[in-house]
């Protein structure tokens, strides 16, 4: 490397050290990175001039000297994170330390929705709420679909309105900032890795159990995407010798039998076929059509036989998916997230049975099975985090390690 490149490498490495461990002072940086004091000072002055690092008031160091603390300048701009996985969608604004400064609900995704128009409208509304567009640094969008390397939705089985939408090109042309598009479950995994139940794990899997089922996989602190971006699409996995991929071609087999939507649907089907479940009907308000996943769980807790039977079936299928992930990946932790987190008695009805099945089926050390700590906000926090990470890694590409890159 010539002197100019070496200096740029130092600037980048120093920036990421400040970002990871700040507030820190210059002598700490030099010691930890094994750089000379003048090299660190040159890097810090460059970062201050570029506006991405600021100094705070001086503090007394261990040696007795007074030194200024350094940290990332969170006020230099903001990013927009959008989560299309939730219904309705969620939009968040975050500073460059990924502190969420605004979060709200947006439009409801559906097959008849003009996704392109709604996305533009949502971002324009955020800009109106938070000042002129110059403060906007990046946009990230999480989608319930497979995304190709151009930021275009490649496979959106659940939402035809998303299929083929070139989100990255659309928003970059309109707003003139970098745009990043990612599978929504992967973003939930990223959020858990940075802020939630996966924070101290190098290897874990996040399983979204809602109307759809999918997994975000983190191996050695990297999000795993696979060759075509479809790694973790466990909603299409098979179990118990089932020989077809799905009944509709758009919903996976596991989603057909073990999603939260399937729980309510199967309860309604069995009541219509003549099964009796007075407790379930009472919890649902008296009408078959009023049955929800929550009412099935509430009835199961009250001893309803049909509800217990349905939950036993659901946990058996989910257990198969969890066991297979544990055997293939050998992760430290498996995190359950999505709508399942809000169901009554989730620990008793889901976590404990699945944990027991996992321990019985796997003869090795098993991963810890826990619930998401971020719940409904995981996707939008992960979306904001992706925007911040991708923006800053693009500006400062050199660092000691590269967590959460595509593999």
Describe this structure in words.
This protein is α/β, with parallel strands linked by helices. Helices cover 42% and strands 18% of the residues. Strands 5-4-3-6-9 form a five-stranded mixed β-sheet, with helices on both faces. A five-stranded mixed β-sheet has the order 12-11-10-13-14, with helices on both faces. A two-stranded antiparallel ribbon has the order 1-2.
Supply database-style keywords.
alpha/beta, 14 strands, single chain, 407 residues, 5-stranded mixed sheet
Strand and helix layout:
Elements: H1 3-21, H2 26-33, H3 37-50, E1 53-60, E2 66-72, E3 78-83, E4 90-95, E5 100-105, H4 115-130, E6 136-143, E7 146-147, E8 153-155, H5 167-175, E9 179-183, H6 184-195, E10 204-209, E11 213-219, E12 222-223, H7 253-258, H8 260-272, H9 278-283, H10 293-301, H11 305-329, E13 333-337, H12 346-361, E14 368-371, H13 378-395
Parallel strand pairs: 3-6, 6-9, 10-13, 13-14
Antiparallel strand pairs: 1-2, 3-4, 4-5, 7-8, 10-11, 11-12
């Amino acid at each position: 490397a010539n002197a100019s490149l070496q200096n740029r490498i130092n600037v980048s490495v120093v920036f990421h050290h400040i970002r990871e461990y700040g507030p820190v002072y210059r002598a700490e940086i030099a010691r930890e990175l094994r750089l000379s004091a003048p090299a660190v000072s040159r890097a810090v002055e460059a970062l201050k001039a570029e506006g991405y690092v600021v100094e705070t008031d001086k503090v007394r160091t261990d040696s007795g000297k007074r030194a200024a603390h350094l940290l990332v300048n969170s006020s230099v701009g903001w990013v927009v994170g959008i989560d299309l996985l939730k219904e309705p969608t969620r939009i968040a604004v975050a500073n460059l330390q990924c502190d969420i400064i605004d979060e709200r609900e947006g439009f409801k995704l559906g097959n008849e929705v003009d996704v392109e128009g709604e996305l533009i409208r949502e971002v324009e509304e955020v800009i109106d709420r938070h000042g002129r567009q110059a403060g906007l640094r990046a946009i990230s969008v999480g989608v319930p679909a497979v995304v190709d390397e151009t930021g275009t939705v490649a496979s959106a089985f659940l939402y035809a309105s998303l299929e083929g939408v070139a989100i990255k090109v659309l928003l970059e042309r309109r707003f003139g900032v970098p745009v990043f598009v990612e599978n929504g479950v992967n973003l939930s995994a990223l959020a858990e890795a940075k802020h939630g139940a996966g924070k101290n794990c190098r290897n874990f899997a996040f399983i979204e159990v809602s109307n759809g089922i999918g997994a975000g996989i983190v191996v050695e602190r990297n999000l795993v995407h696979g060759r075509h971006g479809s790694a973790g699409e466990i909603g299409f996995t098979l179990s118990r010798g089932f020989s077809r991929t799905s009944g509709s071609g758009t919903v996976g087999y596991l989603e057909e039998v073990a999603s939260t939507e399937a729980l309510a649907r199967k309860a309604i089907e069995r009541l219509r076929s003549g099964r009796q479940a007075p407790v379930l009907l009472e919890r649902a308000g008296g009408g078959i059509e009023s049955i929800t996943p929550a009412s099935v769980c509430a009835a199961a807790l009250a001893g309803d036989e049909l509800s217990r039977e349905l939950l036993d079936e659901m946990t058996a299928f989910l257990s198969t998916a969890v066991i297979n992930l544990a055997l293939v990946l050998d992760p430290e932790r498996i995190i359950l997230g999505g709508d399942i987190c809000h169901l009554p008695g989730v620990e008793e009805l889901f976590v404990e049975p699945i944990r027991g099945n996992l321990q019985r089926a796997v003869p090795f050390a098993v991963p810890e099975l826990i619930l998401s700590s971020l719940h409904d906000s995981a996707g939008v926090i992960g979306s904001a985090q992706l925007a911040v990470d991708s923006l800053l890694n693009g500006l400062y590409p050199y660092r000691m390690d590269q967590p959460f890159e595509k593999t």
